[in-house]
Structure formats: structure tokens, C-alpha cells
Amino acid sequence: xxxxxxxxxxxxxxxxxxxxxxxxxxxxxxxxxxxxxxxxxxxxxxxxxxxxxxxxxxxxxxxxxxxxxxxxxxxxxxxxxxxxxxxxxxxxxxxxxxxxxxxxxxxxxxxxxxxxxxxxxxxxxxxxxxxxxxxxxxxxxxxxxxxxxxxxxxxxxxxxxxxxxxxxxxxxxxxxxxxxxxxxxxxxxxxxxxxxxxxxxxxxxxxxxxxxxxxxxxxxxxxxxxxxxxxxxxxxxxxxxxxxxxxxxxxxxxxxxxxxxxxxxxxxxxxxxxxxxxxxxxxxxxxxxxxxxxxxxxxxxxxxxxxxxxxxxxxxxxxxxxxxxxxxxxxxxxxxxxxxxxxxxxxxxx
Length: 350
What we know:
Elements: E1 2-3, H1 7-13, E2 21-25, H2 29-43, E3 53-57, H3 58-63, H4 67-73, E4 82-88, H5 94-106, E5 113-119, H6 127-134, E6 138-142, H7 148-161, E7 165-166, H8 168-177, H9 182-195, E8 205-206, H10 208-214, H11 216-232, H12 235-247, H13 252-274, H14 279-284, H15 295-304, H16 307-324, H17 331-347
Parallel strand pairs: 1-6, 2-5, 2-6, 3-4, 4-5, 7-8
Helix pairs in contact: 5-6, 7-8, 7-9, 8-10, 9-13, 11-12, 11-13, 11-17, 12-17, 13-16, 16-17
């Protein structure tokens, strides 16, 4: 099934009972992740339970394509609904994965688990995308950058839910600053809600002054300094930028999400190069495009970081994300350790 436009929200709020799996793909990784997590809550009461959930990456299936079929047919130890999450950063096993999807769609009795796939941008020729769109028990949902109207509606909705209003001129100033990844935009909105006291202050209202103080645009430079210096192999510069960001109250989760997004884009560009594109052409294929002033650093990162190392780095950030969700987790230490580890690795390959 191909789910688009206004059908997406209603589909995710009330997925069909015979649904086996959903593919979330597109340039907005944050939106793909958000939608995947919302669907997972429908699929499983405890998605973080190691006995009921399995996480696979594209590289896991490169060496063992049959593992996906094995995980999808494995019964739960306690008889509850199992979940398989597949994170794709390339499609080298695309033919094998699409074959498994077609087989499960034809023989649903083989599926003992639900499948949620998160991927980057996919062309209409993608074997996995085509298989999900043609299936009756699988769905494919594209995740594209929010429009200005979408962002404005999301801001109003989230603020209203916390009993906070926003001035019209403040909204007009804020929307362009949030233009980008859904996860980063939502983090900035959550940060504003916290700043305004979760609406517990009477007549709480977001003003232009609030936007100038907290909006993403004011922090983008410092976050970019952290990510670029870490991936370029400059530990001292990375540590200094990280400490300045912490002192400036930059959200740890936003730094980690920015790092995940940069690594994912490097993997995506690397996949384009493996298909025959030159590095310069590969980065121009990314959506949204690489910021012109960062193109040289991005090209340098492609030379420094092999695919396997990027996959390992992404796995580390995903583990860190889970740790940050634990009450009392030392977020600064967790993220700082990852950044310095990456910077140390890159420094040896410069």
C-alpha cells in the first residue's frame, strides 16, 4: 500500500488489523523516526523490551539476508506481540528484503512479528519501496520536509496543548529557523515549552524576544562546530565547542540528534558513491542539500570515514539515545564520550 497526504495520520492512528509492516522513507529522518515510534506504540505495549523487540541494521542483513525472515517468524518467549525494527542506510540487500516482504504478504501465517523499517530517501525504483507499495499487508509512507504551514501548525498545536500562546510576529520569525528535520524542530518546540514553564505561568505567551533567545538558529553554529570538529578529527576543538554549548544550555538530545543526522547523511552519500557517483555529485544528491559553506568539510568526512565505521558510530549514537531516556542518565558524559571517541578515531585517519 502507498499511503500519502491526508491519509497518513488516519492510517497511523488506526492501522489495519492485518498489517504486517510499514516502511518509512524519505529525506526527513526525524519525521520518519517520529512516525515509526508512534506506530510502534500501536504495535507493542513495551517496545523497549529486549525479549519482544529486535533491532536490525542494513549491515546485519548484508552478511545474513535470511536473518530478517528468521526474526519475523520467531515466536515471542512470553506469547505477546513481537516487533522487528530495521534501520536501512543502504539497499545492498534490497532484493533479498523485498523477496521476504513479498513472501510474508502472500503467506501472512509466516509472520509472527510486526516489521517497522526506517530508511533514507528512496527512488521509485527501490526494490524495497516497490514491494511495500504493491503489497496488501505492508505500507510505504514517504517522509518529506515540513512546509512552513506544517511547522506553524505544529508550533501552535504543541504550545496550545501546554496552555501557551504565541504572538503572530514571533511565529513568523520562528518558522524559518525551524525549517529542517522534524526531530530537531520538535526538540526546539519542547525547549520553548520548558522555558515558558510548561504553561503553569498564567497567560504564558511566546514573544519575539523568546524566539531570539532560544530558537534553533541561535544555536546552529555552535552545534555545527561540535559535529564538524568531531567528525574531522579535532578532539580539542570538539571538546571546547561542546563545553561552550553546555554552558549555553544547548539541549544534549539536540546535539545527539544532529550527530545522528550527519552520520546518516554521510552513509547516504557513501551509498551514492558506491553506485558510481563522484563525491561532489553524491553530496548534491542529498536532500536537504549540504550547506555550501560545509561542503569541503563534508567531502573530507567522506574520505576519513569508511562505511563500516559510520555504521558503528550510528549504532553508538542510537544506544546513547536509549540511555538518555533513562531517569538520571548523565547525558553530558554520555554524549561527550561519543564525540571524543569519534574525534579520536578521525584524527588517526586524517
